[in-house]
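Researcher: Let's walk through a ligand-bound prediction step by step. First, I give you the protein sequence. Second, the SMILES string for manganese (II) ion. Third, you return the three-dimensional complex as structure tokens. Ready?
Model: Ready.
Researcher: Here are steps one and two:
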Amino acid sequence: MEQLREMLKGHQLRTTTCREDVLSTFISKKNALSHGDLEGMLGENYDRVTIYRTLKTFLEKGIIHKVLDDEGLRYALCSQSCSEEKHQHDHIHFKCNECGETNCIENLHIPAVKLPEGYIPENFNLLIQGTCPKCKS
Amino acid sequence: MEQLREMLKGHQLRTTTCREDVLSTFISKKNALSHGDLEGMLGENYDRVTIYRTLKTFLEKGIIHKVLDDEGLRYALCSQSCSEEKHQHDHIHFKCNECGETNCIENLHIPAVKLPEGYIPENFNLLIQGTCPKCKS
DNA sequence: TTCAACATGCAACAGGGTTGCAAGATATTT
DNA sequence: AAATATCTTGCAACCCTGTTGCATGTTGAA
Ligand SMILES: [Mn+2]
Ligand SMILES: [Mn+2]
Ligand SMILES: [Zn+2]
Ligand SMILES: [Zn+2]
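Model: Step three, the predicted complex:
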């Protein structure tokens, strides 16, 4: 609990119970979470708008990053190396079609791609869908 | 115009002006289109719901495929090889941050990735964002 | 031309996401 | 410890995307 305060402070954020709860939810669940997921878990304590704004703030501060999948937008904790200025997000995301969970695969980088002449790449986003180890029968 | 009828017929679809217009829009614009784009272009002639249903039908028949990007969902024409039963979509999508267009890069396949033990991959979706040849100063 | 099957428009709805504003909480200074 | 400036929250209202039910209009084949 004290860790959460430190973590928020480290990003120049005031400590509020909503921010602590959202952050600790991201830390305990390891998978990517949508706003709806968080609202389901914390919605009795906080207004949905507050949860939206908390996500937006965490995004801006480099605490979480966006995860795209076919169902919409989710968010996951950034690795240590992310800050407000610089994000490091060339890792792969895996969505399991059985359990529906989407996870960051931190250790696996997106392989280089040789684009046609004239394309200047900046960001990469690779989503792989399939079956995760937990759901593999 | 006759080509459109043939194309629809080939997918067991009745010819309607909405389907012809949506299909010909996909063919003339080469980039991925959102429902909103189509509504902007055709919305005076057709109800938005009809456009939604046209997109859904085209998806099911393998005429178009989904394209994910950070702003939401778009659609693009499938290559010849796609049908209702089998889709072939291991190509890369490129979104230009200048002009906002998203395009299929048909000739470029997504490179193989060695996932950790236990993951069974089925679909791949790689979005690269950056600057496209047209917008490169 | 007739008719069943299919497609459309309209209305209504659910969900995701944003904004303005007044009231409440936080960190800092005195 | 109290006062204050600054930031955060809740609420209401709103827009956008996408879906569904149903009555009416069209299509293509007999
Ligand atoms: Mn990630
Ligand atoms: Mn494509
Ligand atoms: Zn799973
Ligand atoms: Zn461009």
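Researcher: And what stands out?
Model: The radius of gyration of chain A is 16 Å. Residues A 65, 67, 76, 91, 93, 104 surround manganese (II) ion (ligand 1) (CB under 6 Å).
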